[in-house]
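dumping these here so i dont lose them again. two proteins, back to back, each one seq then structure tokens. dont judge the mess
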Amino acid sequence: MTTQPEISRAAIAIENQDYNIKIAKSGFLPSVSGSASLSTNFGFNLKNGLLNQSFFSQLNDNLGYGLGVSVGIPIFNRFQTKNRVDQALINKKIFESRLENEKLTLKQTIEQAFLDVRTALKTYEAAKISLDAQEEAFKNAQQRFNFGALSLFDFELVRTRLVNAQAAMIRSKYDYVFKTKVLQFYAGELELE
């Protein structure tokens, strides 16, 4: 559970939902905002083409400024804040169920990997027995062929069975090794680089 990224990702998603709940609940708190403004203007008489005052003098004389503070107290906002909080709580429950689902899926994957290892071991053991039997059959067939009691066709059939048994032995061996490594990975004993 501690080494798999799916579990960590699901746990982090729950933590994220905790923050989303706090953000949604902040809608119940009053808000304070401030503003400041600064303005000026300049005028020119187009009819006479004359300036009543100099440019900088007009800017200085027409200077205006303002400050503002507003306080918002949420009394009634059509239950929007309550709905946001409820939705955030529902989302948290969804992510909690996803975490449990990820844990269950991981458990099933590990159990399947364990069963795969057991099956691969049994297949490997059976392949060893089959190979031993085919090797013995090949020895007997070779002696019979040497004495002329076995045709070339029958001898080639026995040799083909031996080659197939050797191939099955190799496949089952590497399948067992691979499945053991998969189980070690899920157990946290094997790290990929």
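---- next one ----
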Amino acid sequence: MRTAVNLAEVDNTAKIILMARWDQMEEETSPSGGEARWRYVEALLEKVFSDAGWNVHREAGSRDGGVDLIVRKKDISYVIQAKVAAEGRSDRLVPLWSQACLQAIKAGSSHHPPLAVVAAPRISARAAEQVLDFAARYAPDAAAGVIDFEGLRHFRGPHLEDIDAGNHEPQRSARALPAEPVNLFSDLNQWLLKVLLAPELPGPLLTSPRGRYRNASQLARAADVSVMSAFRLVQQLQRDGYLHESEPYLRLVRREELFRNWQSAAAVRRREVPMRFLLGGEPHAELRRMARSGRACLALFAAAEALQLGFVQGVPPYVYVERLAPANVASWKRLIPAERHEVPDLILRQAPAPRSVFRGMVTRDEIPACDVLQVWLDVSAHPSRGQEQAELIRRRVLDPIIKGVHAGG
């Protein structure tokens, strides 16, 4: 009996949900998780071969024996065994292809030669060729295939020329995920980047989980974000070439460019209001009370000073709040806007990326302050010797991280 899935009924929303949960399902052992993965790839293979004029079917009960599909075209047939990777890296794909090949050989016969296929959400042309080179070297009698969800189709074997997409990077489908480029430096993505970098930073300079993450679902759990959010960031980092292709864990590469672009994205004008304390209030004590309210933290040069990385003197302390609105400002009874002719006691500024700022902030002398990465980003564009402050932070803390010394390259 034939079991088929109509791809036309799988809309973009369903695809996005499935792909966002891909890493999570990779770790699940329940039959329902494996069934979802298998059905999606089965449907994709069925469409690929059907569009090329092949007849496709799966025999009842064949899955227990490892047979995914049998495809026929005139007097030619193949038994296909497919495996799925959460990520399109060659170190993940090659072992899975090897397993699929052994199972396909066992399930095949003289009438149905084996075709082993490996799939992933996105696979580079280079990684696909590495799989096919491995197949040609160690299993020359078995046909091989590599596919992804964005249009890559590489097959090697007799009579498979009409399936193979050629030795070039295929044109990605307009329905591929994501439909539009992800903002690499959105609020949540900045937090996720901090989580990826945290193991290389001293604990007192950034509040963050510190671990190594094999995939987006592990990163999502550690960072306390949705799997979808982490998946989109990982995919964009891969597209932009900022993730190592063969490391077992997510590791950022090309960091000089990444940090430079991150710095540029942060260099935009922020909403801020000069403020002063009412008479009778001691500025340092009032600032301490305000920052400890849980709704604010020291920023820019004041945060650098709290982190013992201060360099610039004479600038009023900056304080980040999540939202700069009259009702929020009014909640601090001893604080009023400064007149034009008055020297402000502090400058309230709306946090540029609230989740990234307040999740990563640290506490020094019982006062919350921005983490070292946030300070470096924020002071870089400040006209009052901000570049010099940023350079000091880079030289004393960030240089090994930006150069990838702690990460091994």
